Amino acid sequence: MKCKVCGDKESVGNTKLCDSCRLKKWRKDNKEHIRIYNKMRKQRDAEKIKVQRIKGWNNFCFGGKKEDVLKRDNYTCQGCGLKKSDGKKLLVHHKDGKGYGTRKENKNNKMDNLITLCKECHMIIHNPQALRKVKGNFKTVNNNKAKGEKEC
Known about the structure:
By secondary structure, the protein is mostly helical. Helix content is about 40%, strand content about 5%.
């Protein structure tokens, strides 16, 4: 017997609905149950969701190469030389400036275009006025003179 809603698929049991129409009807009739379940699942799987979000962000921003760049640079800021073990938060930076605001297909995620920087050095590249606020000895890590950016 055909489904009484879509008329395409075979109905299951005596519900006279196919599996997909039966599921749609159940979801429509049980919105509160679904909301409670999703809330419970979100709390239960919070750490798993966080890890998936980080992996997705790494893939989107750096083509999945963030950890490879950090290892290549020995978990050391290429601007000031401080290490992760010194308590520095390390970030990966696109030398050509095509990072966060660029579409995924237009990003240059080659290893020679990615560099490890601490939060302060990264801030100096993107916000040259912050140079006065951060103390340290910096060396050149970026060749964006044409854009007028200060070098770290």
